Amino acid sequence: MHTTFRNALGEKLTTGDAVVLFAGKAPKSTADANYTFLPNKNFFYLTGITCENFIILMHKTERAFESHLFIEKPDYDIEKWIGRKMTKETATSISGVESVKYLDEFHDVLNRLIYNNQIQKIYLDLEKLSWDESDSVAHDFSMALQKRYPFIRLKTIHPILSEMRMIKTPEEIAHIREAIQMTDQGLRSILKMLKPDVMEYQIEATFAHAIRMAGADGNSFPTIAASGGDAVILHYVENNKAAKAGDMVLLDLGAQYKQYAADISRTYPVSGRFSERQKTIYNIVLKAQAATIEAMKPGVKFETLNEVCKSTLISELKAIGLIQKDEELTRYYYHGVSHYLGLDVHDLGRRDVILQPGMVLTVEPGLYIAEENIGIRIEDDILITEAGNENLSVMIPKTIDEIEKLMI
């Protein structure tokens, strides 16, 4: 799979182009401890490897698109403390890259290629979501390159890989399916234990245990288990309160399998039964989700999805008298309905496009009524197909009847 991705990338480049990607390194947290390492997903996409510090160098010649993988050198004294280093043979087996060298050879190999005029332009992963975002190892490397080789042109690889990663292969879709199946198991475990006075962190722990027992890498993102009034906070992650009788708990969570993410939201009644008011609001959100999913098919603009969602919510909220004017919707619905899903939970991909087969997107309408302590979000993961779409998470209970029956 990763060799195929590298070959596809090579087709988009011209002779003299090179790409350098870094796996990254976990930053220090405190004392002698580091944060948990998360590999750069673009590096993983092109190698299949999740080790710290590794580098891949790819360059296009007139004859081929060549790859060189640079890995850490084995050191028995260090390995006694932190575990075995990956061997060259294993690196080739996982990545498909035949040319595997040690990290201390990287600069010499790069310098030789530049000196021999085989590289005129280098692509790096220079994506930044904000002006204030910290520099990555790629940004530091870009400054060193400009100082040493001012004649080399630098570009970001982000737009090219975004375009590629928008469309999933059958193998990628299979990994996402597995992650969703594991998420389903985790949610069913929550339904069995949820009751008044259960702590939100116990809900979080129940999910984490269930998905790890099922074989997941772990969580695809920190679990949101927001009960009562905190459910109106989109990214509530404190999970430190007791779920109270009569309230609901909004769950936004997912398993990760082979680096691919699931992203599911469900809202459950803590006492096992929805109140009549909760049912009314819940079914409005469910109706908005159904309308949005129905609209998802090749040729539809990405931006249309949120328009369909908002139109349904506006119509239904007017019908129950919660709003009178269209613009009042923003009091109760204040996020988009969809994003791409894949190696990242909010996966790479442009939004000024039409939907195409192979895209995997979330659909997550919500209503957040702070004055009533009601926050509801329902989220599924949808694959765009030639014929329309497939709900990959269709097996996860979400109707009121399904949920209440499982909580008996």
What does this structure look like?
This protein has helices at 2-11, 41-47, 76-82, 88-95, 106-115, 137-148, 158-166, 170-193, 200-213, 276-295, 302-319, 400-406, and strands at residues 17-22, 28-30, 33-34, 55-60, 65-71, 99-102, 121-124, 153-156, 218-219, 224-227, 248-253, 255-257, 260-261, 264-269, 360-363, 366-369, 374-377, 380-384, 389-391. By secondary structure, it is an alpha+beta fold. It folds into two domains: 2-164, Creatine Amidinohydrolase, Chain A, domain 1, CATH 3.40.350.10; 167-406, Creatinase/methionine aminopeptidase superfamily (Creatine Amidinohydrolase, Alpha-Beta Complex). The radius of gyration is 24 Å and the shape is globular. It is an enzyme of class 3 (hydrolase). Residues 1-132 form the Aminopeptidase P N-terminal domain. Keywords: Aminopeptidase, Hydrolase, Manganese, Metal-binding, Protease. Pfam families: AMP_N, Peptidase_M24.
